[in-house]
Amino acid sequence: MKKIYILRGEKNQGKSSILNGLFKNREGYDGIVCMRGEADLRNFVQLSGEESWLMQGSENDTGPWLDVGRFRFSAEAFRRAENYLRISAKKKDVRVLIIDEIGPLELRKQGFYQVAMELIRMESGPEILLVVRNELVEQVINLFDIPEAIVMFCGDYPDGIFPW
Questions:
Q1: 29 exposed, middle or buried (CB, 10 Å; 0-12, 13-18, 19+)?
Q2: What is the residue extent of each domain of the chain?
């Protein structure tokens, strides 16, 4: 069975920035990371390629929306990211596929829930790295039924040398 990694850390610890810095356009790695952009709004960023798109909207934008607390995320932006992940998972040269992040939306079976479930359950394909906040790790492991997950703490890899 392929390996499922969970990179855990605190909110704003720099998990996404580390992954983007290490794996952007790096051979064998692909996926989606969530980075802050202009006006502190979040964007989805492809690790392989140059595309990024706004995932977070304002009250004046049209929906449909996925709401988490004070944040409002575009359902269409998630669909686009999901499609990218599905395509990347089928590429022979992708060894590790990164999904940033699995959190409150996914625990409500929204956001990346469906695509993450599909990719985790695939018999073949790349290893999967899920980015998860510390306090949600056990819930994510239970939700996706991945008791064999290899859990890594972001702070243990300050030099960015991960075990794969």
A1: buried
A2: 4-156
Show Cβ contacts of residue 6 under 8 Å, excluding neighbours closer than 6 positions: 129, 130, 131, 132, 137, 140, 141, 149, 150, 151, 152
On the question of pLDDT at 161 being above 80, the answer is no
Query: Can you name the residues that pair with 74 across neighbouring β-strands?
Result: 65
The amino acid that residue 125 corresponds to is G
The 10s digit of each residue's pLDDT in 18-48 is: 888 888 989 999 999 999 887 778 899 999 9
Determine the CATH number of domain 4-156. Answer: 3.40.50.300
Pair 10, 155: CB distance under 8 Å: no
Tokens encoding 101: 């992040």
